[in-house]
Amino acid sequence: MVELTLNAPWFMLSMEVGDQGEPEHSVTQTLCIAWEYDLADILVSMEAARVTGLICMMPASASASGHWTSREIREVWLHRSAAGRHIELLDKTGQRFDCGLTPDHIAPVEIDLLWRVIPRRQR
After folding, report:
1. How, if at all, do strands 84-91 and 10-17 pair?
2. Exposure letters 23-34 (e unless 16+ CB within 10 A, then b)
3. Residues 9-35: what's their mean pLDDT?
4. How many other β-carbons are positioned within 10 Å of the β-carbon of residue 69?
5. Residues 41, 30 contacting (CB under 8 angstroms)
């Protein structure tokens, strides 16, 4: 059982652990990640092909249904400027969204793709 005390988006990152050359010897491990910046740090530190799925769990306050919902993520982007940084996500429907406070960026703004889903057939 997991109890959530925070009414904010969080993430489920699934990754392949073991020998990618021998899939029968690997397992899928899933991490629950509370903050988008922790997610970004993890994605930067690992091989993108090991990620098998990324879900953003959206709180009831961010949902039209008034219930927790999930969004399957396809890309994670980092925006940086003198005003700060923020994470932008692209879901499987092609919709871009932010999970936290977005600073009023001051030009120049650096935008980096941190992770993009790699189709299973290309892993």
Report:
1. unpaired
2. eeebeeeeeebe
3. 87
4. 14
5. no
Q: What is the pLDDT of residues 26-76, one digit of tens each?
A: 899 999 999 999 999 999 999 888 899 999 999 988 888 899 999 999 999
Q: How many CB atoms lie within 10 A of CB 46?
A: 13
Backbone angles phi, psi at 13, to 5 degrees: -110, 115
> Distance between CA atoms of 55 and 82, rounded to whole angstroms?
30
User: Are the beta carbons of 110 and 80 closer than 8 angstroms?
Assistant: yes
Q: What is this structure's pTM?
A: 0.87
Cis omega (within 30 of 0) for bond into 108: yes
CB distance 86 to 101 below 8 Å: yes
pLDDT of residue 53: 95
Q: How far is CA 49 from CA 57, 58, 114, in A?
A: 22, 25, 13
